[in-house]
Amino acid sequence: MASLLKLSTALRRPALLAGNRAGSSYAAAFKSALANEPATEVTTLDSGLRVASESVPSQVATVGLFIDAGARYEDKHNNGTANFFEHVALKGTTKRSQAALEQEVESMGAQVDVSTGREQTSFTARCLSKDVPKLVEILADVVQNPRLDDADVKRAREVILGEIEQVEAGNLREVVLDHLHSTAFQGTSLSNTVWGPSSNIRSIKADDLKGYVGSHFKAPRMVLAAAGDIRQSELEKLAEQYLGKVESTFDGKPPQLSAVRFTGSEMRVRDDSLPLAHVAVAVEGCGISDSDAITLSVASSLIGTWDRTFGGGVNNASKLAVASAHDKLCHNFESFNLTYRDTGLWGIYFVCDPLLCEDMLFNVQNEWMRLCTMVTDGEVERAKRQLKTRHLAQLEGPHAICEDIGRQVLQLGRREPLHDLERRIENVTAANVRDVAMKYIFDRCPAVAAVGPVENLPDYMRIRSSMYWTRL
User: Fold this and answer.
1) Phi and psi based region of residue 228 (left: phi greater than 0; alpha: psi -120 to 50; beta: remaining)
2) Are residues 277 and 395 in the same domain?
3) Are 408 and 225 in contact (CB under 8 A)?
4) Is residue 5 assigned to a domain?
5) Is 317 in the same domain as 385?
6) Where does the Peptidase M16 C-terminal domain start and stop, copy by copy (predicted)?
7) Does the pLDDT value for residue 32 go beyond 80?
8) pTM here?
C-alpha cells in the first residue's frame, strides 16, 4: 500500500507542475494584454478644457462632456438645480428647436443622455464613429446655448415632482442610500440629494438655471472624452472648434467643494405597511485618490453581493452569503465602497423580513469584525479575482470606457492604466486588508439608515457596541 501511495504521488506531481506552468503562463499573458491596452491620451487646452480619448477598434463610439457640477456644489436653498437642468437640457437650444434637435439625433441613429450625480454632470452620446464630429457640435450647443424656456421649465417641474414620488414609492434602495448620506454627512453639502427637496423644485425658475449654467459650465471644469475609432488630434480640433468659446474665467470665486464631516448617527423611517425592511449601515471610507481605496474595495468584494435568486446557495464563497442562504436571513445584500474626492462610505445594504433585522445585522457585524482580525489569504485572493473581473466587465465597450475616462480625468486629472490598476489590486495582501479594516471599521461609529418595518433593528447604541470585539 505504501508503494502504491508513493507511485500515486509521483504520477500526480508532473500534472501539478504543468498546472502551475499553465497558470503562470496565463497570468503573464493577462498582464501583457493589459499592458498593451491602448493608452488614454489627455490634453489640456489653453482655456483649461481637458480633452481625453482612447482609441477602440469599433464602428460605434461614445463621446461625452463631463462637468464639475452636481448636488455637492449646491446648498439648502438651490439643492436640486443640477438635476432640474438635466430635465430641460435637451428641450432645445437657441439654435435648434426641440423637434430639430431630436430629428437630427435620430437621423444618425444616435442616443444622447444627460446624467447628474453628487459631484458631476455628464452629457454623453452614443453614435457611429464617423458621426463623432457632429455629436460634439450638438453637445457643445446644448451646453453653451440652452434655451431654458419658461414653458419647458414648468413642464420639467411637474415631471421631476412625479419622478420623486415614483422613486420614494418604488426605489427604496435609492431612498435608503439618500438617507444614509443625509445622516452620515449631516450639515455638509454631501448630504444633499441629487433630486433636491420638493419645496426647491417648486420654486426653481429659468433664471436660477441660467445662473447655475453660468457659474459652473466653465472650461476648467469640463472634460471632453471619447472612446471609439477616433484620434486624439481630431478630438482636440473639434474641442477648439466647438468649445473654444467656453469661458475660462469666473465672476467672483470659482465654485469649490466644501469640507465634509462624517457623523456616526442614524435615520429610521418606520413604515409597517411595507412588506420588507431596507437597511444600510456604513462607516466613513476614503477618497478616490487615497492609497487605501483599493484595499477597501477588496474588503467590500470579500463581503460580496448576494440575492436569493443567485445560484450557489450555501456553497457560495462569501461567508455572509452562506449564512444568509442557510438561515434565510435576507432577500439580498450588497456590500459597497462609495468613493468621492475627499471621503467615502464603506458599508452594506440589505433587504430582509421584518423579524430578521437583528439576526442579519449580527451576522454582518460579525463578518466585519472577522475582516479586522482573521481574514485569510485564500479569501483575499478570491476577492481580488472578483474585483478584477468586475472592473474589466464594467469597461466592456466604448460607452463604459468613455464614462470611466470622463470620471477619472475630472476627479484625478488622468486615467489610471488597467495594468496599473491590476497591479495595485494584486499587491493587496490579507495583512493589508486587516490593517485597513482596523483603521476604518474596528471601533468606529457607523451611520445607519433604515426604511420599512424596522422595529426589530437594534437601537443605535447596540449597533455601535458591536463594532468591536473584546479580545483577551
Assistant:
1) left
2) yes
3) no
4) no
5) yes
6) 203-387
7) no
8) 0.90
